[in-house]
């Protein structure tokens, strides 16, 4: 039994919507789970995993899904309104990332521990710097005349591509942090694997959303 083109398209749309809704649930659940494990406020260090998870698992995921035609919570709003919410969420993500970096930096300073001595530390630093640069680069979308010689369409394309790289870095940093002694001591066995699935599945869905959106726009432009 073969499906018609319309049936395949409808099935694909349903699967995309289910996957998108699943990511919403995953990023909220994962953030709450990390908050319970980290118990923010119990120590200076506790703010680091909490803020970083809030930044990359919640705010950044929602900022990217805001433009999804299938799973955006405000999909019926205008593109301009979506852009404003995207800016707000990205600003919150970058702010949390900077605060999380400051918390771990000062905590290591107080305990006389080396800074950025692990892969998690190095990738985490690169991720935060990339997030700041991505946010600053996004200013060109608000004021495209500042980027002379670049069309708005090209700026959006590069911004989306670099945003995907930043998200991949963020999820990689989260996975490396979940391999740390602190996390593996607090979370182990099956719970660790279930937790690790959250950023992995989120990354796969986000990659599909961004690439599918780009291919759709490219098809309409040709």
From TrEMBL:
Record membrane topology: Multi-pass membrane protein
Record field: transmembrane: 18-38, 44-67, 87-106, 118-143, 164-184, 190-210
All copies of domain Cytochrome b561, residue ranges: 15-217
EC number: 7.2.1.3
UniProt keyword annotations, A-Z: Electron transport, Heme, Iron, Membrane, Metal-binding, Transmembrane, Transmembrane helix, Transport
Keyword Electron transport: yes
Gene that specifies this protein: Cyb561d2_0
Official protein name in the record: ascorbate ferrireductase (transmembrane)
Co-factor(s): heme b
A UniProt-annotated Pfam family: Cytochrom_B561
Subcellular location: Membrane
């Amino acid at each position: 039994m073969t499906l018609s083109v319309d049936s395949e398209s409808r099935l694909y749309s349903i699967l995309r919507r289910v996957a998108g809704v699943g990511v919403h649930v995953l990023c909220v659940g994962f953030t709450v789970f990390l908050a319970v494990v980290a118990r923010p406020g119990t120590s200076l260090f506790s703010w680091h995993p909490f803020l970083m998870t809030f930044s990359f698992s919640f705010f950044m995921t929602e900022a990217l899904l805001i433009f999804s035609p299938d799973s955006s919570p405000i999909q019926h709003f205008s593109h301009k309104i979506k852009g404003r919410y995207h800016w707000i969420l990205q600003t919150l993500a970058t702010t949390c990332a900077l605060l999380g970096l400051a918390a771990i930096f000062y905590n290591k300073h107080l305990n006389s521990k080396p800074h950025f001595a692990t892969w998690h530390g190095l990738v985490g630093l690169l991720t935060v710097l990339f997030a700041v640069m991505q946010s600053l680069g996004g200013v060109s979308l608000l004021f495209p005349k500042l980027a002379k010689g670049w069309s708005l369409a090209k700026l959006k394309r590069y911004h989306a591509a670099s945003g995907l790289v930043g998200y991949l870095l963020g999820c990689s940093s989260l996975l490396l942090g979940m391999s740390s002694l602190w996390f593996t001591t607090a979370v182990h066995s099956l719970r660790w694997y279930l937790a690790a699935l959250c950023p992995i599945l989120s990354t796969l869905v986000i990659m599909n959303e961004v690439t599918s959106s780009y291919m759709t726009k490219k098809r309409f432009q040709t």
